[in-house]
């Protein structure tokens, strides 16, 4: 089991990213965070990571939907289409509670869909659940391969 919770945040809003980072550090000091500001930057980081790893492994992605250049839906579709990235854990973490967004995310095999809570206690609860999830899961050691 991995000790550090390694999160790749794909979020364009600086304030939302800062609130999320502070909340995660409050929940667990052993969290490792890496951030991209949109889907294009995130894909570049993930594909460069295959050559020169920069993201601590294993990790999961917290993905916003409404972003410039490449939105979360487009990014998720690209990740799922990539042989090297298709098994990455991706949790959509967005303000959209629109059923069409939720359905589209799950059609693209999102591992979960979380509507950003409006208050700090709601955020603390969500982040604690993610932390608990991380701690009880068994994680792959290296790149996942097909059976």
Tell me about this structure:
The chain is α/β, with parallel strands linked by helices. It has a single domain, classed as 3-Layer(aba) Sandwich (Rossmann fold), CATH 3.40.50.2300. 43% of the residues lie in helices and 18% in strands. The protein contains five helices and five strands; from the N terminus they run βαβαβαβαβα. It has helices at residues 14-27, 39-51, 72-81, 99-107, 120-136, and strands at residues 5-10, 31-36, 60-63, 89-94, 112-115. A five-stranded parallel β-sheet has the order 2-1-3-4-5, sandwiched between helices. α1 packs across α5. The chain starts with a strand and ends in an 11-residue tail after the last helix. Residues 143-147 have low confidence and may be disordered.
Quick structural summary:
With 147 residues, the chain is of the alpha/beta class.
List keywords for this structure.
147 residues, alpha/beta, 5-stranded parallel β-sheet, 5 helices, 18% strand
- By CATH's scheme, which homologous superfamily applies? Response regulator
Number of alpha- plus pi-helical segments: 5
| Helix content class | 40-55%
Main sheet attributes: strand count, strand direction, barrel closure: 5 strands, parallel
Shape: globular
Strand order of the largest sheet: 2-1-3-4-5
- Uncertain spans, ≥5 residues at pLDDT below 50? 143-147
> Whole-number average pLDDT?
86
The domain count comes to 1
What would CATH call the class? Alpha Beta
Compute the number of strand runs.
5
Query: Structural class of the helices, strands and pairings?
Result: alpha/beta
CATH architecture: 3-Layer(aba) Sandwich
Order of helix and strand elements from N to C terminus: EHEHEHEHEH
Instruction: Tell me what portion of residues adopts beta-strand conformation.
Output: 15-25%
How is the quaternary structure best described? single chain
What Rg is obtained from the alpha carbons, in whole angstroms?
14 Å
